[in-house]
Design a protein that fits this description.
Strand order of the largest sheet: 9-11-12-14-13-15
CATH architecture of the largest domain: 2-Layer Sandwich
Oligomer: single chain
Shape: elongated
Number of domains: 2
Number of helices: 11
Distance between the termini: 53 Å
Order of helices and strands: EEHEEHHHEEEHHEHHEEHEEHHEEE
Strand content: 25-35%
Number of strands: 15
Helix content: 40-55%
Structural class: alpha+beta
Radius of gyration: 26 Å
């Protein structure tokens, strides 16, 4: 192939032609061990490499969030969405599911594809398997952090109990019924905290396989929520339950699901109790039937909220906003239950406004599930 040089001479090119270069580039594209997909602005997959096909199937024509996450819409805080928004390179750690049903922890990096005018017309997503030890390592870190803070938490519980007992004794001696009620409330609240701590420790410490059973999902939600009805009334917090009547029987671990929901409800009520900026507080529990027969469970509150800079740490470390009043162990329980069900959990919160936890769980029998474990 000849072309004119800058000085008018002829320059001969003996290398591959443009078509040959494209073939070589495609070969290199397929040789990359990471799974690569090319996506348009609508998150629809337009091209994939060999590694992607081995892990997730063909995928072309599917939406990325459907192809390996079993979702019906774009993921919360999606790195590709950030790339589309600012034209930059972004990364995250996520959990996806292969076509064979294997759950993988991966690192995701997205980069823009630019059109002739410099605008972002699409993006390239590269997923690299981090190995199966990631989830175990994260859980060990969470447990270690929980144990480190446990002694201080238990000390606070004992102090609260001792204070309540002292007030009760003084009230009995003086015959003061109002003071007696106050002391008993202190004792009752701390006994509830001890019971919750014991249940959470037991759930996290034992090597328990989930006992997936066919259950009436909405009934299970109501039973768990009603456990907190009296507490919500005592603390002047509205507790609202809204159920999707389309949801019938589904396959869940009843004990694990109860632990998940009661921990989220307890945290939501605490968030309201610790918030002094509002006159009225509320906690809501909603169920919805998602596409593919999945349960969409939402626990929301208008309590103190979580600062934006801390939202990303909710499930990556032993997280609590209660200071010495909490260990964060409850969120570890929630995380373990979601993992056991091959589900998904997200959190959206604004400091001083409130928090929404959303849990997506498959309701199909274990052998027919196509969900992945994802935490955002």
């Amino acid at each position: 192939m000849d072309r004119a040089g800058d000085d008018g001479t002829t320059v001969r090119w003996n290398g591959p032609t443009g078509g040959e270069l494209r073939v070589q580039a495609d070969r290199l594209f397929d040789l990359v061990p990471s799974a690569i997909s090319i996506q348009d602005r609508n998150y629809r997959i337009r091209k994939v490499n060999a590694a992607f096909r081995r892990m997730f199937g063909e995928g072309v024509g599917e939406y990325c969030y459907s192809a390996y996450k079993g979702r019906s819409r774009v993921c919360l805080d999606c790195p590709m969405a950030r790339t589309f928004a600012d034209g930059g390179v972004h990364s995250s750690e996520e959990v996806v599911q292969t076509a064979a049903g294997e759950v993988l922890h991966v690192t995701v990096q997205t980069s823009p594809i630019l059109g002739p005018d410099g605008s972002v017309v699409g993006g390239m997503e590269v997923m690299t398997d981090l190995s199966g030890s990631t989830a175990v390592r994260q859980e060990l870190v969470l447990l270690g952090q929980a144990m480190a803070g446990m002694a201080h938490y238990i000390k606070n519980l004992l102090t609260g109990l001792e204070g309540g007992v002292y007030v009760v004794e003084e009230a009995l001696e003086d015959g003061d019924e109002g003071l007696l009620q106050e002391g008993w409330e202190m004792v009752r609240r701390n006994v509830e905290r001890v019971a919750r701590l014991s249940r959470d420790q037991l759930y996290c410490s034992r090597d328990r396989m989930p006992e997936i059973q066919l259950v009436e999902v909405n009934r299970l939600v109501c039973q768990s929520a009603e456990l907190y009805r009296a507490r919500a009334e005592r603390e002047g917090i509205g507790l609202h339950v809204e159920l999707d009547e389309r949801i019938g029987a589904g396959w869940l671990d009843p004990e694990g699901f109860d632990n998940l929901l009661t921990n989220l409800l307890s945290n939501a009520l605490d968030a309201c109790r610790f918030d002094t900026s509002k006159e009225r507080h509320w906690v809501s529990v909603k169920t919805l039937l998602e596409s593919g027969g999945q349960l969409h469970l939402e626990v929301a509150d208008n309590g103190q909220g979580i600062p934006e800079k801390l939202c990303g740490a909710v499930f990556s470390e032993m997280f609590t906003t209660k200071g010495g009043g909490g260990t964060g162990l409850g969120l570890l329980v929630v995380y373990r239950v979601v993992c056991a069900h091959n589900g998904r959990i997200t959190v959206m919160s604004e400091d001083g406004v409130g928090t929404v936890f959303t849990v997506i769980l498959p309701l199909a029998p274990p052998g027919e599930r196509s969900m992945n474990v994802t935490v955002e």
